[in-house]
Design brief:
about 400 residues, alpha+beta, Rieske Iron-sulfur Protein, Naphthalene 1,2-dioxygenase Alpha Subunit, Chain A, domain 1, 2 domains, seven-stranded antiparallel sheet, four-stranded antiparallel sheet, 9 helices, disordered C terminus
């Protein structure tokens, strides 16, 4: 085992995780409970990957600014005068004060509230106020050009903002490629914002939320009404490099095949137990944290979840729901969908928070066991975690 993890994870626990066999053990309990393991993930998983950090519709105009946290670091997103979205380390280059602590609109520059240093929206240092004395803003040997805000590689893809904090800039197109293959024929350029939900802080590790999202084993037990139209036996696993998840295709009494984008909306009660149409759904995770749910039924909906790890046992969750083209439904209908989403979130929250509590028990020192059928994507996700934290040379993928 790597010396870096020797004091965090017992060698025996890691050996069980890596052991071959049809039924595999899950991650060691420390992967969910240890703050030191959490900090390794921040550095080796989130900082070195393209990480989802925000939604572009929340910064529509020049001068819109939003602070976010990525890999434990303070980052600020800025819509420039040129319309481009940029990301910077959210610290003043003078003394390191956190520069922006709340979203704002119409900003002409970013001004440090400590000593009044100011920066242009493209990150350039404009004025190091009084740095050389009262009314003297320049000092010999101090270069304005090299003391602008430190930029972070940033990409906007449709409504979703990704950053690469470490600046190693892995190829963004390659990052997206597995997801695009599974969305072939779906024009995401047609997405339209419907509503958002800020679920606040979940008292659990971020990985429990991801693992719950990509495994269908719990669906008929935890969501007997809210997902009654998605029986377990119709689900199957999805996996492609750093994309993992599950999917379901159900034939109802409609056309006898999964519904496709553009199918006319059906009026009436929208709860899953009352839908008699064909449905198709994909629950996809693009590692490490882009959780993408697309549902084809009477309407085509897309749900993107942003989970921000705060500590080993705390995660802040927000999500945005879109429709794929069509006319915006009446607000009454949208409120019905929101209520259904709230119900699903509440059901899942109860489970993932109890999972966190359970990891404090010595009984789960062995990581528990995973279904080789219904939790194969969960295991693939865990392999990606360990490959990032340990280094690929020390992890045998899929326990082989």
């Amino acid at each position: 085992m790597s010396d870096l993890l020797r004091d965090i994870v017992e060698a025996e626990s890691l050996a069980r995780f890596q052991a071959a066999g049809p039924v595999k053990h899950g991650l060691p309990a420390e992967a969910y409970t240890s703050q030191r393991f959490f900090e390794l993930e921040q550095d080796r998983v989130f900082a070195r990957s393209w990480t989802l950090c925000g939604f572009a519709h929340e910064l529509p105009s020049a001068g819109d600014v939003m602070p976010v946290t990525v890999a434990g670091r303070p980052i600020v997103l800025v819509r420039g005068k040129d319309g481009l979205l940029r990301a910077f380390h959210n610290v003043c280059r003078h003394r390191g004060l956190k520069l922006v602590d709340a979203p704002c609109s119409g900003c002409r520059r970013l001004v440090c509230p400590y000593h009044n240093w100011s920066y242009a929206l493209d990150g350039r240092l404009i004025n190091a106020t009084n740095f050389g004395g009262h009314g003297v803003h320049a000092v010999e040997g101090f270069d304005y050009e090299t003391h602008g805000l430190a930029e972070v590689p940033c990409r906007q893809w449709h409504d979703w903002i990704f950053v690469n904090v470490a600046g190693n800039e892995p190829d963004f197109e390659r990052f997206l490629a597995p997801l695009l293959q599974h969305l072939d024929g779906i024009d995401l350029g047609r997405i339209e914002y419907l509503y958002k939900i800020d679920s606040g802080i979940f008292e659990c590790n971020w990985k429990f939320i991801c693992e719950n999202f990509i495994e269908p084993y719990h669906v008929p037990v935890v969501h007997p009404e809210t997902a009654a139209g998605q029986p377990l036996d119709q689900h199957y696993m999805v996996g492609d490099d750093h994309l993992v998840g599950c999917a379901v295709d159900v034939e109802g009494n409609g056309a006898g095949k999964p519904a496709k984008p553009g199918k006319p909306a059906k009026s009436g009660d929208r709860r899953a137990r009352d839908l008699c149409l064909d449905i198709s759904a994909r629950y996809l995770l693009l590692f490490p944290n882009f959780l993408f749910f697309i549902y084809f039924g009477a309407e085509t909906h897309i749900n993107v979840m942003l989970n921000v790890p705060l500590a080993a046992g705390q995660t802040h969750q927000r999500r945005v729901i879109y429709q794929l083209g069509g006319t915006r439904p009446p607000e009454e209908t949208i409120e019905g969908w929101r209520a259904l989403t709230d119900d699903v979130i509440a059901e899942d929250r109860a489970m993932v928070e109890r999972l966190q509590e359970g990891r404090r028990s010595p009984v789960l020192a062995d990581g528990g066991v995973l279904s080789p059928v219904w939790e194969a994507s969960e295991r693939a996700f865990q392999d990606l975690i360990m490959a990032a934290v340990l280094g690929p040379s020390e992890v045998r993928p899929n326990g082989g």
